[in-house]
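quick one if you have a minute, typing this from the bus. below you get a single protein, a line of residues and a line of whole numbers that encode the local backbone shape. could you go over both lines and see whether the tokens make sense for that sequence. anything you notice is useful, everything is just below.
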Amino acid sequence: MTLIYPGSFDPVTLGHTDIAMRGAKIATRLIVAVLDNTNKQPLFSTAERIAFLQDALGHIGNIEIDSFSGLLAEYAKHKHATAILRGLRSPGDFESEARYATCNRLLSASNIETIFIPASPPLSFISSGIVREAALYINNLDDAALRNMVSPMVQDALKKRFNSK
């Protein structure tokens, strides 16, 4: 079974990598796909986000790191995916993700399904937005709070990005 785990991953968090590792246990092939959305200004480039994911997940044999733009349903068809993998942090996430799941199913010729994995409780509070905001306001980015949210590579990149401003 091929699963696609799409996201902006801006930046990649420990929550993202946890969902990917757990998804890899149920898939024969897991494609972690970075959305290259030209309508948004990400903090990190697509290449940087791919590098973060390679660093965190590259050691897992059935995980591929890729990027895409456009419709997820089209990308999934192109990759011959069985389903889309999504992580859920809260009941509110389910409401919005269920809408996307329905749209992807309708837009795909194969009626692609979505598989939801709930966040591990210690990681359920982490989001890329919270990480970006914390990094902006924490004076010392070696702070233990960020160490509990992102990998060392991402923490170093955040430190360089925000200390240069």
Summary: The two ends are 44 Å apart (CA to CA). The chain has one domain: 2-124. The first helix runs from residue 14 to 24.
